[in-house]
Amino acid sequence: MFNKHIFTGAALALGMVSSQAFAADTTMRISLQLPLKSHLGQNLVLFKDEVEKLSGGDISVEIYDSAQLYKDKEVPAAVGSGSIEAGVASLTRYVGDIPAVDVFYMPFLLNSEDKVRAAVAAGSPVRGPIDEAIKDTGSTVLWWQAYGGAIMLTNGGPLKTPADMKGKKARVFGKTLGDFVTATGGAPTLVSGSEQYLAYQRGTVDVGMTGVSGVKSRKLWEVMDTITVTNHADIEFIVVVNTDWWNALPADHRDMISKAAVMAETDVRDRVSQIEADAYAAAVENGMTVYTPTDAEIDAWKQASTSVYDDYLAKTGDMGAAILKAASGF
Predict the structure, then answer these.
(1) Which of 19, 30, 181, 198 measures 20 to 30 Å from 173, CA to CA?
(2) CB-based burial of residue 105 (10 Å sphere; 0-12 exposed, 13-18 middle, 19+ buried)?
């Protein structure tokens, strides 16, 4: 007759050994402010699946979406300090340390896919210095995530010209976008991505600024009824990892993560045009009006916002001047 207590204890011990045997050698937590169903969230899922496949389960990737752990503005400090291994942040969240990152928000500068692709290419004279400078914050850039062009949201009609912006409060997600709003007659208000729905719903702001994919993933058609397709800025997110954590990984783990990152970056960049097209279609299906300004109206926006370039050069010094010159040549 066996002792059931000894048997139970042995079974528990065996279970512990088994779970340890199958536990991942490396765990990589990633903070994301957007919903998992957003295209940036799905891009992280693609990365996770690839990493876990390449590593045979030795590397586990955990995604914490919808700002469960950190808001967008908190990600650079959280990753840089090592509070979390990795995070997704809007590139402009680094403007305090690296003012030149806002070259992507220079009004109507990178206003075509070809120009954007040239600017974000690894090692380009625009991206290269930015990736290098971010290392000084304690983080290493793993890959860039395309989010698309900036649009404006309103209720009751489009923003055809700067005259329509005059006196309105506008949600922005970066200082330079705020300069654009000020230059065109509005009053900027910084509102994080995860809080913009409520800001529109409560009337905290009159105008929204985001990417059209965010309209779809956050169902912003429930609180705004019109999209003005200005594409006045290129919105980029970056996935960063804590540098100390990264450097301490086994070389083969870094290699597998890097390969998955390249794949994820290429995938989202290649699909962003279709992602935006699908989002516009969803917006219309849900009752929104989409307005594309005429060339003359875009020219009015450009003329009204020339001071943003002067402010950028004044804030960014030699690095900003070199990056702006390179971006202007694309």
Answers:
(1) 30
(2) buried
